[in-house]
Specification:
292 residues, mainly alpha, 2 domains, two-stranded antiparallel ribbon, elongated
Length: 292
């Protein structure tokens, strides 16, 4: 009969100690989810700095990547060690409730958090299913199931950008942010300025230059107003479009973070075995097959 090895929280004669270890894992998981949601909200509220690539977005982005890195690690450890499976699923469902608490109990956050919960639970079940097919414990199930968890995380961050736009639009009553108007007008004016001044000769007077710039600004503002008027009936599409763009970009950006987190998770599981927080257990199972 093949001997299967897996990791499990050490079961000592004291059942209290066992449940304390489980409680520690669950609290770490919920804390990591709270930290990740907070960091995503901070970046989402600074969506304009991210769009225009301002220096002020660097610190929130670093905080977000750190939070995602920690959540990957702790969720991997929790998916492996939390027993029974229903308890692991319940703990990951709790991460969605923590996220909903930060976002607020409204329709859009509720849909996002429900999807997050389904992906998180799917991640746990996928890890456990792949573990059962292993003879010796490895972190390959975590690596194979990482896309499910990354989908949940990317969805969360994308939603925070969309919610940040929606919150800002509600507070400042705009269709497009005023910063967009400034960027549009300044870009259009600077591009058309040289061509508009060319007929005035090599050395136009200050009054002529000011008149041309005033006319260019007026034309650019009118063009922006026309765009804004056309978009007004479709205002709800804009935050969805922003979230979709962020969603596509983040899948590429998070790949190195995921692989680095897998390496750290493997090392930490080894440390947990050394410190007797967890141990390798052997199981014997009968395999029944058919043959001629």
């Amino acid at each position: 009969m093949p001997k299967l090895t897996k990791l499990s929280p050490v079961r000592t004669p004291s059942r209290l100690t066992h449940w304390i270890k489980i409680a520690i894992l669950i609290l770490l998981l919920l804390g990591a989810a709270a930290f990740q949601t907070y960091a995503a909200q901070v970046v989402g509220l600074n969506y304009l700095s991210a769009i225009f690539v301002k220096a002020s977005i660097v610190s929130p982005l670093l905080l977000l990547f750190l939070a995602v890195f920690l959540f990957f690690i702790i969720s991997g450890i929790a998916a492996v060690l939390l027993e029974p499976v229903w308890l692991a699923c319940l703990a990951f469902f709790g991460t969605a409730l923590v996220t909903l608490f930060f976002f607020g109990f409204q329709l859009v956050p509720l849909c996002v958090c429900a999807t997050f919960a389904l992906c998180a639970i799917g991640y746990v079940l996928s890890v456990r299913r792949l573990q059962k097919n292993q003879i010796h414990f490895t972190t390959h199930p975590l690596a194979n199931a990482k896309r499910i968890l990354s989908l949940a995380i990317v969805l969360l961050i994308s939603a925070s950008f969309s919610l940040g736009w929606m919150t800002d639009a509600t507070q400042r009553q705009f269709t497009l942010p005023p910063e967009f108007k400034q960027f549009f007008v300044s870009t259009l004016t600077s591009q058309a300025r040289s061509a508009a001044l060319k007929p005035l000769g090599a050395h136009p007077t200050k009054m002529q230059t000011e008149a041309v710039e005033h006319e260019l600004n007026a034309n650019a503002e009118k063009s922006f107003a026309d765009i804004e008027t056309g978009l007004k009936p479709k205002t709800f599409i804009l935050p969805i479009l922003l979230g979709s763009i962020v969603f596509c970009l983040l899948f590429v950006i998070l790949l190195p973070i995921m692989y680095l987190a897998l390496g750290v998770t493997s090392f930490l599981l080894w440390i947990l075995c050394l410190t007797k927080f967890a141990r390798r257990i052997k199981e014997q199972r009968e395999v029944i097959t058919l043959a001629l």
